[in-house]
Amino acid sequence: SMGDSAEDAVRGTNDSAVESRCSAVNLGYFKDEFVKFFTRRTERRPPIINRGSYARFMGFDIFINKFLEAGDMKKQIVVLGAGSDTKYFNLKKENKQPYKFFEIDFPQITFKKIQTIKRSKQISGLIGDFEINIGHTELYGQDYYIISEDLKNFTTKIVPKLEEHGFDKNLPTMFLSECVMIYMDPEHSDAIVQWISENVPTSLIMAYEQILPNDAFGQMMIKNLKARNIELKGIDAYPDLEDQKNRYLSRGWDQAFAININYFFNSHIDPSEYHRQMLIEIFDEIEEWKLIAQHYCFAWAFNMKNEDYKFIFDD
Ligand code: SAM
Fold it and tell me: What is the ipTM of this complex?
């Protein structure tokens, strides 16, 4: 099992994620007025990192909006390893929040998030009425919930907690894993994938994570993380796009897709937006960018067991 320092290192990846997001937001890559509350480090990151944060943001933004706009029934979003994710606040501000929005992370991370929420009227006001548990690691609002638990205890501890706070397996539900399952033992992340497939008849899961561990760049990426005591535990189990797809198909999901970030830019970002974003920073590391972008993917899968809600997944 993971030593404490290895777990701390995994939790530390949340700091770099939020610092990078803040840098990209400050430069105008995308809008997120809440990210600044979650970090004091607002240094400018290199263009390649900003571009990566932009891709990551856009991918989730596009798919979340599609999911929320398809039909006006109650829907749920569950964010695995949410860290300092601000999606709920941005959706709520635009009155686009789903019926229920759940976030899960380690107690050390949720404690800090709740502290930040309590300190900021702008955020707490947005949430509306909420209660906080004794340890200040969980928050229960009207449509927003923060649950503190190790994701390896998904079926035994997290599912009962979700249900206690109104999670309904029969509602269309989107599960997000933004650089999270890759840090878990595949045995534990796959238990989550399997549980959703078997228990949430109308669901969508979307993951953003590293692939291609075996080429020179992949080896370097893994070595650099190892130096920070961070292990990509899932990368050997799902090393390429085909394996990423099969991860879901072999566990009963009806459709699955996996694309790298180069392909994502070509297929999902329209030309005017592509150019706007290209002009933000002088960018002369095109070859390096293409190589990095090849090593990150979006993978998503649909569970369409309920005929009535199948239309949600129509293109
Ligand atoms: N999803 C957020 C984002 O993209 O900004 C945070 C990403 S950060 C790279 C990874 C997050 O996953 C951290 O907040 C970490 O604590 C959480 N995490 C990783 N393994 C976990 C586990 N076994 N249980 C709960 N949270 C976990």
Answer: 0.99
